Amino acid sequence: ERLPDLLKRMPKAELHMHIEGSLEPELMFALTARNGLSLPYADVAALKRAYVFGNLQAFLDVYHAGTLVLRTEQDFYDMAWAYLQRAAADRVLHTEIFFDTQTHTGHGVSADTVINGLHRACVDVQQQLGVSASLILCFLRHLSEEEASEALEQAMPHLDKLVGVGLASSELGHPPEKFTRVFAKARSLGLHLVAHAGEEGPPAYIWAALDALKVERIDHGVQAMKDPALVARLARDKVPLTVCPLSNLKLRVFPSLAQHNLGAMLQAGLVATVNSDDPAYFGGYINENFAQTFAALGLTAQNAFQLASNSFEASFIDASAKRAYQ
Ligand code: ADE
Ligand code: ZN
C-alpha cells in the first residue's frame, strides 16, 4: 500500500484541535447572516487573504475576531458538527476537542450556551457515526488566574460533559506557574490536565507545566528539543506531546516543514502525536498534517504506525477502550 493511502486510511485519534479554529470562512459568513451581524471582510476570498500570520499573537487576533459571529447554542453545535464530519472522513475514531468559554463570556455569550451546543454535537456524532468525542476546557493564559477560576466555576454544572482542562492563548510572558491553583482545583475535581507549552515559549515553560501544573500531556512542546535534560524527562515519563506541524509552519515556529523536528522527537523516543490545532486557519485537517509532514520529512510507514498508536495511548479514553483501538 502507498504511504499516502496508509496515512489517510489508518485509524487515529486527534488530541489538539481548538473548535473555534475549525470555523471555516463559509460557515463564518453563514452564521454572520443568520445572526444579523456583519464582518469586516467583503467575502470568503477576502477573509482567506487575511490568513497570513507572523507569529502566534497575530493569529490569535484574527481568530478572536472570527469568534464574534458565534452567538447561539445552535452556532456552537453547527461548528462542532462540521468539524466532526471532517474528522470522521479523516478516519479519526476519537477526538478530544479544545474550547474555551472566556472568549465567549467576554462578549456576552454564556458558558452554558457554549458547552451545551458543543456537547450535543459530541453526543450526536457518537450515535450517528460511532466517533467518540470529548471536551477539554481551555483557560486563556493572557487573562488572570482569578478569571480562569471563574471560568471553572461556571463550568461546574457541566463537569460530566468535560474530560479535562487545558491552557491556551498567548504563551510568551504567561508562564504556566500563574495557573497553579486553578489547575490543582481542576485536578481535585477529577479532571485531566493538559497545557500548551513550548510552542513559542522556552523549555522552562514545559518544566513548569509538568512540575507546577502537573499536566499529563504537553500541547506542542516542540521547543523541548533545545533541552536534553527535558527530553530525557519526557521520554522517561512517556509524557505525550500533541504536535501540530501545519500550525508551526503557519505561525513561523519553523521556517519550513522540512525543518520541523517531529522526526527528531520520534527518534528521541518521545510520545509525539500529529494534530491540526486550528484547521480552518492553518490550511488543513489532520490528514493534511500527516500528508505534508511525511512528505517533507521523509517519514516512513513505521513512523505512521507509531504516531497512530501514540494518539490512542495518549488519549483520555479508558484503558479497556484503548486496548480495543490498539
Ligand atoms: N489557541 C488556538 N490555537 C492556539 C495555539 N496554537 N496556541 C495557543 N493558543 C491557541
Ligand atoms: Zn493549540
From TrEMBL:
<dbReference type="GO" id="GO:0009117">
    <property type="term" value="P:nucleotide metabolic process"/>
</dbReference>
<feature type="site" description="Important for catalytic activity">
    <location>
        <position position="220"/>
    </location>
</feature>
<feature type="binding site">
    <location>
        <position position="277"/>
    </location>
    <ligand>
        <name>Zn(2+)</name>
    </ligand>
</feature>
<feature type="domain" description="Adenosine deaminase">
    <location>
        <begin position="11"/>
        <end position="326"/>
    </location>
</feature>
<dbReference type="InterPro" id="IPR001365">
    <property type="entry name" value="A_deaminase_dom"/>
</dbReference>
<feature type="binding site">
    <location>
        <position position="16"/>
    </location>
    <ligand>
        <name>Zn(2+)</name>
    </ligand>
</feature>
<dbReference type="InterPro" id="IPR032466">
    <property type="entry name" value="Metal_Hydrolase"/>
</dbReference>
<dbReference type="InterPro" id="IPR028892">
    <property type="entry name" value="ADE"/>
</dbReference>
<feature type="binding site">
    <location>
        <position position="18"/>
    </location>
    <ligand>
        <name>Zn(2+)</name>
    </ligand>
</feature>
<feature type="active site" description="Proton donor">
    <location>
        <position position="199"/>
    </location>
</feature>
<keyword id="KW-0546">Nucleotide metabolism</keyword>
<dbReference type="Pfam" id="PF00962">
    <property type="entry name" value="A_deaminase"/>
</dbReference>
<dbReference type="GO" id="GO:0008270">
    <property type="term" value="F:zinc ion binding"/>
</dbReference>
<comment type="function">
    <text>Catalyzes the hydrolytic deamination of adenine to hypoxanthine. Plays an important role in the purine salvage pathway and in nitrogen catabolism.</text>
</comment>
<keyword id="KW-0378">Hydrolase</keyword>
<protein>
    <recommendedName>
        <fullName>Adenine deaminase</fullName>
        <ecNumber>3.5.4.2</ecNumber>
    </recommendedName>
</protein>
<dbReference type="GO" id="GO:0005829">
    <property type="term" value="C:cytosol"/>
</dbReference>
<dbReference type="GO" id="GO:0000034">
    <property type="term" value="F:adenine deaminase activity"/>
</dbReference>
<comment type="similarity">
    <text>Belongs to the metallo-dependent hydrolases superfamily. Adenosine and AMP deaminases family. Adenine deaminase type 2 subfamily.</text>
</comment>
<keyword id="KW-0862">Zinc</keyword>
<feature type="binding site">
    <location>
        <position position="196"/>
    </location>
    <ligand>
        <name>Zn(2+)</name>
    </ligand>
</feature>
<keyword id="KW-0479">Metal-binding</keyword>
<dbReference type="GO" id="GO:0006146">
    <property type="term" value="P:adenine catabolic process"/>
</dbReference>
<feature type="binding site">
    <location>
        <position position="278"/>
    </location>
    <ligand>
        <name>substrate</name>
    </ligand>
</feature>
<dbReference type="InterPro" id="IPR006330">
    <property type="entry name" value="Ado/ade_deaminase"/>
</dbReference>
<dbReference type="GO" id="GO:0043103">
    <property type="term" value="P:hypoxanthine salvage"/>
</dbReference>
